[in-house]
Design a protein that fits this description.
Chain lengths: 416, 445
Amino acid sequence: MKTLRKPVYFLCGDYTISLGTGRKEFHPKKPRPGLEHYIAEAGKGVVAQISDPAAIDEGFVGNFMAGRFNRQGHLGAFLSLVDPSLKYKPSTRVEGACASGGLALASSVSSVLAEKSDLVLAIGVEVQNTMKAIYGADVLAAAGHYAGERKNGHAYFFPSKFSDRAGAYKERFGLEKTWEAMGRWYEQAILNARTCPQAQEYHNKDKDPFASHQAMKPNPRSFCDHINFYDCSKVSDAAAALLIASEEGLAKAGKKTSDAVELVGLGHSVGDLTAPPEDQTVLDTSRHAVSQALAMAGIDISEVGVIEVHDCFTMTGILSVEALGLAGHGEGAAYVISGKTRRDGETPVNATGGLIGWGHPTGGSGVRMAVDLVKQLTGTAGESQVKVSADRPYGLMLSMGGNDKSVVSCVLRRGA
Amino acid sequence: MDLNESLSLVSVIGAAGKMGSGITVLVAQEMARLSMLEENRDKTFRLIAMDLDPVALRGLQDYVHNQAIKAAEKQTVALRGLYADRKDLVENGEIIEDFARRVESMVWPSTDLAAVKGSKLVFEAIVEKIDIKTMVYKQLKELCPDACFFTNTSSVPIGKIDEQAGLDGRIIGFHFYNPPPVQKLVEIIRAKSTTDEVASIADEIGERLRKTLIPSHDVAGFIGNGHFIRDGIHGLVQAAGLAKEHGWAKALYAVNRVSQDWLLRPMGIFQLIDYVGVDVFKFIQDVMDAHLDEDLTDPVIDRMNELGVLGGQHPSGAQKPGFFTYDRGRIAAVYDMEQKQYLALDPQGWCAEVDAWLGDLPGGFRPWKALLMAPDKKAALVAHFAALDAMDTNGAQLAKAYVERSRQIGQALVDDGVAFGAEGVNGVLTSGFYHLYGPINDFCS
């Protein structure tokens, strides 16, 4: 597919709060809402923005591991919790680890392009605070290759995978610079999250997040060799939802193109789950998916004004900057330190805090990114709004699963 | 004797008590770890958990289970290494469960002292009464002729037990702080008669359990209680003085606040006595009073014991009523000994009056919790005490007298040959009591 065979629009996004440590509402020992609540709340936030919920033709629910976190499968059939009129409509749960949300978007787009549906509700959801982090690590490790790498893997399986990448990056491109960039990435995530009331770090009051990060040296005995807790996205309960529409779908929803953003590029790549990364300092699958998306859009990264990347760890944020082509190989750390990714920088990245600041409901993050880009490009991001200039009217997102194994990238353009 | 061999058969006497249960969990974990090692696969490890109370022993089994799980969850990074060749156990959850089951399987509960027969290592954590301890040790000596005896006493002189029970120096003081699985400090008290072998095993096992070991001489109360009991009595005397004018509730509230906020301690002195137990406080006082040439009784503690207002904890860990009642760990009401009833805290009413009477905290005040990990802790303490020094409010006067008394107590522990130098005293207060500073220092003048 070189270009989309018909126009596809993203619109009417909404999300719940990201509940977990850091939020005032969160108490580990008190009962919390379940999956059903999050799916319904995010979905209702979307349908409240359109004239007739029954106009929605189909649903896709992106989710990674409800089967273990919540002992619940069959998430597609929760669709009518959003609105009773959706009963009997087709609805499918899609899974691709932490890229599940990205896959829900891609699947929705396919359905519109196949003319099966004109108006699709894409939902991404994960409710992970049902277990302690040490057990959650087991669940999330399924995003790697269980038979091949779990037994010899670390207790904190994924943190250690990206700790290894951080270690390789530090060794090759300089320890101090890398560590400083990781701290700056964390700081940026917290500062941005404070602009978004739904973000998990919205209540974070740390006067100097950078200093806090730098002061906590990695502790291999209790955690990982090259990263600390601040380098990691937290455990989150949240959902996000938005509509994906053809021109007919927009009309059925009572919306104009100016209410929406247009999808102009889509990339979807998978690597080999059974193989270790060829180069720990490169996100090659991400790079592939982004190139695909940019090529389809027929643009260069320099034309992109606002970006959402999958910074499950600070190191992933830095490596993503390189995968996007904003900085060359080994130059991502300096790029981040220079402040170019900050909200007032050259190309703001993760304006509501990203996975580290906004939160990381694993299977929901891809949809959450799309919701944020729609808000940014339609000028409805409130306190989180960054300046998107007319000569760089594109937004780009990167939704990644596993250790850079499943990636969905979308290029979106401000509506006419 | 080799330490690993000693750990093959261990007994804990008083295993279902507050300290005994913690020691049981801690030692059983180390035994479970040893049992995993290649060279020990064909060896057996057993911990006899002896207690006279069968109901409490049943509770001990639940406690061991819960604590073993918690400990395994914290050590999963290392446990995965220990389980590297167990191909059948892959996930953290599987390894944690297996290790916890292994810890539990170490513990053999018994209500019969004879069950400890042949033990190589005996931890004793029974009541702080020398006659009872002596009686038990006389039996233990017969049952375990090769054992090293580690007594968890916090006050009874080790040499006295040795002498009365005839243990030939096979005993040493191994004083854990409460709760043993969490608290890092162990006071090591070597009696004059303690053999080198026992002393070296004590050092080794302390290291193996990753404890901070601080030696104390064999003087009743040692360092920890040597300071705590006298410090507590100072608070009680201060409160008794204030009670004449303000009544007991206000007096206890005031001194508790001063000893926490003005002195920057983790909790106020009466909350700490409640935590330890008003009854336990008295046991320790009585032991020290009997062995030292110093009046260490206090009429308030005696009266509280007569009234049966004893503090301490429920098995769940929740605090029982003592000088205060507690709601989710926070002080809710204060006991008035004359009225024999609790007076609820009233932040807008009588508490505000007491607060006004005490006056402002020293300028730039930051609470204990904020300072504990603060990088500028030392400078903050210097500034706090300099500010306190310049103040003359009622609160400041009480605080200055308190700081000075604490310093005197600490210095006397050095001068009287209880502690091995000021570091010993300061080490126990900072690592065992979580004080931000030792009582012997140069920034509180």
